[in-house]
Amino acid sequence: MSKDLTKRSENYSQWYNDLVLKADLAENSAVRGCMVIKPYGYSIWEMMQAALDKRFKETGHSNAYFPLFIPKSFFTKEASHVQGFAKECAVVTHYRLKNAEDGSGIIVDEDAKLEEELIVRPTSETIIWHTYRGWIQSYRDLPILVNQWANVVRWEMRTRLFLRTAEFLWQEGHTAHAKADEAIAETEQMLNVYAEFAEKYMAIPVIKGIKTANERFAGAIETYCIEAMMQDGKALQAGTSHFLGQNFAKAFDVKFTGKDGAQDYVWATSWGVSTRLMGALIMTHSDDQGLVLPPKLAPIQVVIVPIYKGEEQLNQINDIAFTLKTALQNKGISVKYDNRDTQRPGFKFAEYELKGVPVRIAIGGRDLENGTLEIARRDTKEKETVSKEGIAERVEKLLIEIQENLYQKALALQNNMTHSANSYDEFKSILETKGGFVYAHWDGTTETELKIKEETKATIRCIPLNNKKEEGKCIYSGKISTQRVLFAKSY
RNA sequence: CGGGAUGUAGCGUAGUCCGGUCAUCGCGCCUGGUUUGGGACCAGGAGGUCGCAAGUUCGAAUCUUGCCAUCCCGACCA
Q: Looking at residue A212, what DSSP letter applies?
């Protein structure tokens, strides 16, 4: 297998595809649009899951599991929700196969038609709110704070590994509250959980904001989001948190009796992040040599590679390496010692660079004599020969430094890719020449938003939270505007 | 789902126009040996229903039709 990746400068999307395959993250499967997530890719996802799950629990949520299948009739109960998802649903119509009478193979048994078709969940609001109806009678039953880790299916026409697949893995939180402001606080809290996760773990700076009516989740009153900037100047929605109002409670007739004895519909939120985060991680940090992983999400944080002549030398290096491995592990650092004799050191160096391992330690004959070792960091490619004394502490600090450096680099990238436009011509020229985020005045109408999208391909990614109020004129219509919104071409 | 391109060994490919020892080459893989401070070298070896299915023909990787998959461009979307 050729290990060479397409260069980012030559073809960014080809680079991304190559990287996902060659770093062993995922591959296409026999089913169109559905991916196989390979062990290495999945272990990164598991790191993400672990960090998020911990935060969900800390904020009072519990995990549960709801069915993969949703009765079709549930879907029709919330009008905008159906409309939003109808075009991309997989539908189960039969429950049995049989042998064809002409011996041509196995066919669907038409006698086994389902009375009511089942939809493979594209999201679980409907089945969950149907279920919550049975769980909620009184304000004492509230709030309900539930999350589920699951797969969902959206029949996408054009798919890309991790970024958009027909089936993907995600978590979806679904909460029920007695008061609107409590639900809004929950929505905002989870947005902050996502933003912190993106910045502290993924080392990706994000813009928090709310979606326009046009970009809002089907069935939500308000959609909050975090938006990230990729190296090619396109934005990527990394997470969403929805205030659903009483829409689903009304659709599924979920009422509770308050302290005062009055009945009211329950207030809802839902929030999710998906395996798409893998795409964000790749496109934010990686380079032409391969994946670059932030230490906090790296399945292997440190790899140790021996360089030796003869078995005797290998044995000496083994002793040092195993001692070092233990010392690092005692500090909670994940280490791999790769003393395979079937590959040479140079090959291993290239391989672990491709896979984004943050720190590499090489130990060779020279080091045996000098009591040193070579330590190399993936993010900057710097190499240094250092004394093996105090190496565990040094590596521990280095991992923190790498994590911070990746964030700062990504932040600088985001800043460089963020522009302001004061006229439509300027707006278009920025999009054509530089890409990235563009702050511009907008008159607040869906009509204008759609026109701009049609003419430039750029969409309003969000109206940033805590946005600076500023008098201005809409770049498209010239109408009065009170603030700039964030435009970008997006994934 | 519409338009375009592509599909030959695990990967990348030659051959396809002009049907007939054409299944080519490189990487990878296996065995043995020598090696090991940035993707090793030598020798030997294995591996292919030419995406799938029909059709045309004495004969199809090559021509025709249908299907499937991937990539690019649109519409749609986390």
A: -
Q: Measure A170 CA to B76 C1' (Å).
A: 21
Q: Phi, psi (5° rounding) for residue A392?
A: -60, -45
pLDDT tens digits for range A45-83: 999 999 999 999 999 999 999 999 999 999 889 988 988
Strand B nucleotides where any atom sits below 7 Å of a protein CB: 1-2, 10-12, 26-28, 35-40, 68-78
DSSP-based three-state secondary structure for A321 = helix
Nearest-angstrom CA–CA distance, A21 and A35: 11
Phi-psi region of A233 (alpha: psi -120 to 50; beta: other; left: phi over 0): left
Residue A85 vs residue A182, higher pLDDT:
A182
Distance A5 CA to B45 C1' (A): 31
Nucleotide whose C1' lies closest to the alpha carbon of residue A310: B36
What is the reported pLDDT for A106? Answer: 79
The nucleotide whose C1' lies nearest the CA of A354 is B39
Q: Which residue carries 């046009």 as its tokens?
A: A214
The residues, ordered by sequence, that sit 6+ positions from A362 with a Cβ below 8 Å of its Cβ are A304, A305, A306, A307, A345, A349, A373, A374, A376
In chain A, domain spans: 12-66+131-285, 296-401, 418-488
CA of A7 to C1' of B42 (A): 34
- The number of CA neighbours under 13 Å toward the Cβ of A321 is 25
What is the arithmetic mean of pLDDT over A348-366? 96
| Superfamily of domain covering A418-488 | C-terminal domain of ProRS (3.30.110.30)
Beta pairing partners, A263: A257
Q: How far is the CA of A310 from the C1' of B34 (A)?
A: 12
Q: Domain A12-66+131-285's class?
A: alpha beta
Judged by C1' against the alpha carbon of A289, the nearest nucleotide is B39
Q: Work out the average pLDDT over A372-380.
A: 98
Determine the pLDDT at residue A3. Answer: 59
- CA nearest to nucleotide B12 C1': residue: A2
A275 CA to B19 C1', in Å?
Answer: 49
Classified by CATH at the fold level, domain A296-401 comes out as Rossmann fold (3.40.50)
Q: Among all strands, which nt has the closest C1' to A163 (CA)?
A: B78
Q: What is the Cα–Cα distance from A152 to A167, expressed in whole angstroms?
A: 6
Asked if the domains A296-401 and A418-488 are classified in one and the same CATH topology, the answer is no
Between the CA of A27 and the C1' of B2, what is the distance in angstroms? 27
ipTM passes above 0.95: no
Nucleotide nearest to A29 (CA to C1'): B69
Q: How far is the CA of A120 from the C1' of B65 (A)?
A: 35
Distance of alpha carbon A211 from alpha carbon A208, whole angstroms: 10
